[in-house]
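Q: How would the structure tokens look for this protein?
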Amino acid sequence: MLQLDVESLRTLLTVIDHGSITQAASVLHVSRSAASWRIKRLEEQVGQQLFVRDGRTITPTPAARAILDDTRSLVEHHDRVALHLQNADLTGMVTVGADTDADVAHLTRLLGSFRRVNPAVDVNLVVDQAHNIRQQLETGSVDIALVQGLDEHLAPADRVLWSEGLVWATSVACPFDEGTVPLVTFGNDCFYRTVGEPLLDTAGIDYRIALSIPTTTGVVASIEDGLGVALLPANRMTDRLMEWPTASELPELPRVHALIRTAPGNQSESVDRLVDLLECELGVTAPLLEAV
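A: Here is the predicted structure in token form.
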């Protein structure tokens, strides 16, 4: 899932509000080159132009105008969370559990930022399969869980970060449209196995577990190299992958939700504030990507 930097979004808004990168840089107290670089990076991330430049005139494109309201709300939400965190005298320990589909590098940056603002809070991170993270949440060894779920898995208190479709993926060089299908999974308790294998069974398609790799990077790489077929979130598709041709014979796949879930019972203010931060930062791309 693409992650957009809040300061780049803030720069986008400021350029639109003030009509120039120079003015925006002055308002944001950064150099003009820094402001320009933020806009360029944002355009590269979303894969399209957000401003039309004509000499000294800079005009937002329809894509930029389409996300303006959502962007402003997200930046304001971020600032409220940041202000709350800075004004809170938080203590204690918070353990976050994330499933293997999480962007761990981005997550550790957020947790590190939270820890620097709140040095009296000890922050722990556990990355494991969703099945294990849910169990740890129930036993209280994890305070906050970042996991995936289907519609039937949603609980009233869950916070949905984003929702996306699933795809049967295979290498463009290996369609696997005949014979027993080699499946690539995330392990014995893989969330996607519980979704995909019943569909294969119902359709009478023979398959075998060819590889079990507990990381998204490993699963994607093995499919790209032609070692099997796997069920993936749509955002994990690459130019070396295609939809498995036999998927047209199977029932439609459900949408999967990225969730924040907290442990049952009373929770500390530190947990509440970290949940607010994670929801704000990790959920930032969903409305923007739909708009763009």
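DSSP finds eleven helices and twelve strands in the chain.

The longest strand covers residues 92-98.

Upvote if useful.
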